[in-house]
Design goal:
The chain is mostly helical. It has 7 helices and 3 strands. Helix 3 links the parallel strand 2 and strand 3.
Length: 167
Amino acid sequence: MEQWDVSVYADFKDSSLSQLPDSDLADRLVTALRECRLLIFAFSEESVSSRWMPWELGLAHGVIGRVVLWPFTKRALNAKATQEYLNLYEALDPASARDRLNEMLVEARRASVRPADVRAMQDLANVTAVKMPEFNNPAVAAEFMTAGPIHLYNAWLQALAQACKPK
């Protein structure tokens, strides 16, 4: 993967994962995932029985919104059928994985936002539409806008200002 100019995170190389899960560990994983445009979840047939696997996949699904399973072997692909939640994600055929991964990497690199971010904005639009009949009361409208869209916009501006600071 690194030969394809892809950043790789391998959980088995992360010594902090040997500790019991806690909020610091979860925050560290979320921070790492926020740097990603695509999670390629490579696995063996033994991986499907991991206690970490569903948690990491769910976390990546919520943070990134773009996950693909890469079974190392046909046996791993068959083992996928033993865990219902794995059917949420595209699974690469080991024989043609490289071509499909290249397509997905190009698509992910071109995207300016993660699919999960788009879904969050769609959710905000749906909540706004439900709340809209109450907006004829200026206090309700102001409270909603401050807690919702304006809060998101301010967070974006702060992150942008931080990112643009000279190092």
